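Q: Here's a chain of 93 amino acids. Please give me its 3D structure as tokens.
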Amino acid sequence: AYTSPHDRTLIVTSIATGEQLTALEHTQKVTAVCLSPDGGFLVTAAGGNVRVWNSKTFEMLHRFKGVGRSFWSSSVLAFHPSGRFFAVCLPDK
């Protein structure tokens, strides 16, 4: 389970044990999270940046900077069913 305490840290918690697995740090408030269909990638949005994480090791694989001014909804990220790409929806054009 991936949950945000409404700040700059995304807490990743095991559903089975309740154990906190990791805390993913951001420079701005985390507003969107999306897990790939195969469970291999986690994408997060904070401020105008999107980060792609390995969901097993929690290593950040890529950061897209300046994608937009801000994200205001938890539904701005979505993976294609194949898991090969994802879409980002922004309120600022």
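Q: Can you summarize the key feature?
A: Strands lie at 2-3, 9-13, 20-25, 30-35, 41-46, 49-54, 60-64, 77-79, 86-88.
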